[in-house]
Structure formats: structure tokens, C-alpha cells
Design brief:
Elements (H helix, E strand, L loop, with lengths): L3 E2 L4 E3 L20 H8 L6 H4 L6 H14 L3 E3 L5 E8 L8 E11 L8 E2 L6 H14 L1 E2 L3 E5 L7 H7 L5 E4 L5 E7 L2 H11 L4 E5 L1 H17 L11 E8 L6 E3 L2 E4 L7 H8 L3 E6 L5 H5 L5 E6 L2 E7 L13 H4 L2 H13 L13 E4 L2 H9 L5 E4 L5 H10 L9 E3 L9 E2 L2 H4 L8
Parallel strand pairs: 6-11, 8-12
Antiparallel strand pairs: 1-5, 2-3, 4-5, 4-10, 5-12, 7-21, 8-11, 9-10, 13-20, 14-18, 14-19, 15-17, 16-17, 16-19
């Protein structure tokens, strides 16, 4: 199953470690324009590698990386290790503090058909191409994707907890999350991590575009290398691993905003919805999240100044014509995308991921604001997905639409970088064998 390897990470030099908070950045697909501009002001912030700017951003990232290596802004660790990464956080409306425990390592870039790394979302091609270009020019995994393994015995947590007694970094990020990093160098302990994962499948929680970028680059490199062995750096990908059996693995809902639908008005939308859904007005829009909680095929609808609970009529579920197994047809998200976006709005399923009419938004308040101010025609409010549902989708071999899940918190960029350049990737001892 999954082959993982320790790595010799590139990290900001020891003099910069005290200001690591000023050097980290959000992932490329969640960083806002406002955040981006503020971070660009710091010439050594990690954003210059992950989301480079300028007329030729990819070349800029490569030249920045070369400069940082030459002037020792970043330095490669001399000993390979497994990097332990803990995220301490809380959720709105709750005083409970969570701690998502995990570790960062390289994993072989398995093709989807290998059924070792399992996806649950579709991707958008233009975002994948961007990541391929960046990987080709820099030979660097700038940030880890997020993978899930299942270990009901929690056999690795004691080693991670022990490592955390000697943290390398500790900082608070843009999400208000306390991020802590440590490293394990002990070869015997590293071998335990390798052994646990070698019998596991990995569910890709976050980073589908970056992972597909690694797959595409791997195949390009194989085609260009007549001496390909399978052990080259381009065969591997950087990943943050967490245990599906942890109580602190949170998946937040991702809502949908609809704009620029020709001929739209509220009366027409409600009339069309009534063919498939029961519709009940909600006095206070802020109550929608609680009203739909725990109810199958129920959604919130925000339109103008009004709010509604809409719920699929049970007899309609059998009319879904998409070629999915029953367990996928019965998902809330399938119901939403089939009946609202295909049947009512006329956007076929395969074209929905690229539709400019549909925007994914995690923040309920932002959804409500955009609808009230006319920046969106309406919003569909969804519920949190369970880990069991995500597993069910992955094991079925089918996928959900892009941005369906929002694993919280997001990992940050800047704690470490992983090179796939041969003289920087290869280890003195291969502990993965």
C-alpha cells in the first residue's frame, strides 16, 4: 500500500526562526487578494514560492528559490526526518480546544488506478496546470497536501507527543490556529511510521490540485527519462498525514453562491424548486444552519431578504439519472447538484465544476451578506459532511464536486519545503524499504 519516506526539509535559517510567523502564508487556493498583497511586502515570505507574482510568476519563484538557497535564507536539514505538526484550534460558538495531530513525510505519487491514494473531489484543470508548471521550475513541494490514514489503535500518537516536547516552531496563523512543528530523527521510530502506513490506503482530504500536479509531472518526467528507476524525486509528493479515527478531525460545510443566472427572480426560483422540494420560510436567516441540521436532503436557501428551508421530496430521489451507485445518489451534495444545478438551472453535471455561475463559500455570514447586497442571486446552505460519508465516497471510486469538503484548519505554508531535486532528495539510508 502506501510507501512513505522521511525527508531532509528546507527551512528558514535559525536566525529567522524567531520571526517564523512573518514568513508563513495561507495555501495558494485559500489566500485572499488582500492577504496576498500584504504578504508580498515581505521579501522573504513563503508566498513568493507558493503564489509568486509578476508577469512571469513561475520564473520568479524559481529565481527566488535559487537566491534563498545561495544566501542561506533557507537551509536544508542535514538529517532526514518525519516532521510532526500539531494544530490547536477552536470553533465558533464553542469553548472546546481541539488539537489535530499529524506528521509530514514524502509519499510515493500513486496514480488513482493504484487505489492507494483515494480522491473524493473532482479538480479544475487550470489549477492543476499551474501547480505542474511551478513544480517543474522549482523542483520543490512548497506545501504539504493533507492525507488521511486509518489507525484505530492510535499507535503513532505517543511518538508524536514525545517529539512535541522539543518543538522547532510555535506560532499563531491567519486562522487564529496555534501551529506547532517538531521533528523525529530516530531511524527506529521513523520505521514505525513507515510500517504503519505500508498497509494503509490514504484518503486525500485536501490538495487535490497539488497532488494531481505531482502525478502529471511524474508522468512527464518518466517519459523524458530513459533510465527511469521509480526512485527519483519526481516519483514522490509531500503530504501531511492525520488519523481518521481522531476526534479532532473537523470537516466544515461549503456553501454555494449563484450569480448571473439569466432570467432569475425569486418567484421563478421558488416555483422551480417546488417541483422537487418542500419549502418552508425561516424567520431569521441565522437560524438556517440549525434548522437543517440532522435532516437528510435539507438545505438552507437565502434569496434577497428571505430565508427558507428546502427539503427534497422523498419520492424524487429515485428520479436521479446520474450513473452513480445508490449510496452516492443519496448524498445531500448529489441531491443539490442534480436537482438545483442540473434540473433547475440547466447546468449538466460534468460542466458544473467549471461553471462561472457557481461559487463555493465556506463562511455563512459572507453568503448572507453577498445575497443581501445583490452580489449573488441566492445561496444554498449545506451541512457538515461526516468522515464516514467521505470514506464511503472514496471507497466507491466516485468523486464529489470540487470544494465539497473543507477540512479545518488548513495547513500553512512556510514551516518547511521538500525538494525533489535529485541531489537534495536522495537519502543516505532509505528507511522506507
Amino acid at each position: 500500500m502506501a510507501q512513505i519516506k522521511p525527508l531532509k526539509a528546507w527551512r528558514f535559517n535559525s536566525k529567522l526562526a524567531s520571526s517564523i510567523e512573518q514568513l508563513t502564508s495561507p495555501l495558494f487556493d485559500v489566500v485572499s487578494d488582500r492577504q496576498r498583497q500584504a504578504l508580498y511586502a515581505n521579501e522573504i515570505n513563503s508566498i513568493h514560492l507558493s503564489v509568486p507574482m509578476g508577469p512571469d510568476p513561475i520564473k520568479n519563484a524559481a529565481s527566488t528559490l535559487k537566491k534563498w538557497k545561495n544566501d542561506n535564507t533557507i537551509v536544508q536539514d542535514k538529517i532526514p526526518g518525519i516532521y510532526v505538526y500539531y494544530q490547536h484550534f477552536s470553533l465558533p460558538g464553542s469553548s472546546k480546544e481541539y488539537c489535530r495531530k499529524g506528521f509530514i513525510a514524502n509519499i510515493r505519487a500513486y496514480d488513482w488506478d493504484d487505489q492507494v491514494v483515494l480522491r473524493h473531489e473532482n479538480t479544475m484543470p487550470h489549477s492543476v496546470n499551474d501547480r505542474v508548471d511551478l513544480l517543474r521550475e522549482t523542483q520543490l513541494n512548497v506545501s504539504p497536501t493533507h492525507g488521511l490514514y486509518t489507525d484505530s489503535e492510535h499507535s503513532l500518537e505517543p511518538f508524536m507527543d514525545e517529539s512535541m516536547k522539543n518543538a522547532i516552531y510555535e506560532t499563531e496563523d491567519y486562522q487564529g490556529v496555534r501551529d506547532v512543528l517538531s521533528v523525529i530523527h530516530d531511524a527506529n521510530v521513523i520505521s514505525k511510521f513507515v510500517d504503519v502506513l505500508k498497509d494503509r490506503q490514504i484518503i486525500l482530504a485536501d490538495g487535490h490540485h497539488r497532488y494531481e500536479g505531482s502525478l502529471a509531472y511524474k508522468h512527464q518526467s518518466i517519459a523524458a527519462n530513459p533510465d527511469h528507476t521509480g526512485n527519483e524525486g519526481y516519483n514522490f509528493h509531500l503530504m501531511f498525514f492525520t488519523n481518521t479515527e481522531s476526534d479532532d478531525l473537523r470537516v466544515l460545510p461549503t456553501h454555494r453562491l449563484v450569480s448571473d443566472w439569466p432570467g432569475f427572480n425569486e418567484a421563478f426560483l421558488l416555483d422551480q424548486l417546488s417541483n422537487y422540494f418542500t419549502i418552508k420560510p425561516v424567520d431569521n436567516a441565522s437560524d438556517v444552519n440549525e434548522i437543517i441540521l440532522g435532516k437528510q436532503w435539507a438545505f438552507g436557501l437565502l434569496v434577497g431578504e428571505n430565508a427558507y428551508k428546502i427539503r427534497l421530496k422523498p419520492e424524487c430521489i429515485e428520479s436521479i439519472s446520474w450513473n452513480f451507485p445508490d449510496e452516492i445518489k443519496r448524498l445531500d451534495l448529489t441531491v443539490m447538484h442534480y436537482f438545483i444545478f442540473e434540473k433547475i438551472m440547466g447546468i449538466p453535471g460534468p460542466k458544473q465544476s467549471a461553471s462561472r455561475n457557481i461559487v463555493f463559500q465556506r463562511n455563512f455570514t459572507e453568503c448572507h451578506s453577498k445575497v443581501l447586497h445583490g452580489d449573488a442571486q441566492f445561496a444554498i446552505i449545506t451541512k457538515e459532511l461526516s468522515m464516514e460519508t467521505i470514506k464511503e465516497v472514496c471507497y466507491s471510486g466516485y468523486t464529489m464536486p470540487p470544494k465539497t469538503t473543507y477540512f479545518y484548519p488548513k495547513v500553512i505554508c512556510g514551516f518547511l519545503f521538500s525538494s525533489i531535486k535529485e541531489d537534495e532528495f536522495q537519502l543516505p539510508v532509505d528507511t522506507s524499504l
